[in-house]
Amino acid sequence: MKPIFVQLQCAPGKTYEVADALYATELISELYSTSGDYDLLLKIYVESEEDIGKFINDHVASIPGIVRSLTTLTFRAF
């Protein structure tokens, strides 16, 4: 399993609905409300062989109320 971080920008007034929908999927390891350009930050663990783009598209970006997402991949460098 490898961790990925996803930041989400939500439509005005939809952040709580998006957060509730994400929580209901039971796929999210950690979920935070953030300040700045993005409203939510989530940490997801995916299987090493999983297609991350398809996973995000199918399980995260498809949730109504999400305007934009930014996915950050992690690498074991140390």
UniProtKB/TrEMBL annotation:
<dbReference type="Pfam" id="PF01037">
    <property type="entry name" value="AsnC_trans_reg"/>
</dbReference>
<feature type="domain" description="Transcription regulator AsnC/Lrp ligand binding">
    <location>
        <begin position="6"/>
        <end position="76"/>
    </location>
</feature>
<dbReference type="InterPro" id="IPR011008">
    <property type="entry name" value="Dimeric_a/b-barrel"/>
</dbReference>
<protein>
    <submittedName>
        <fullName>Lrp/AsnC family transcriptional regulator</fullName>
    </submittedName>
</protein>
<dbReference type="InterPro" id="IPR019887">
    <property type="entry name" value="Tscrpt_reg_AsnC/Lrp_C"/>
</dbReference>
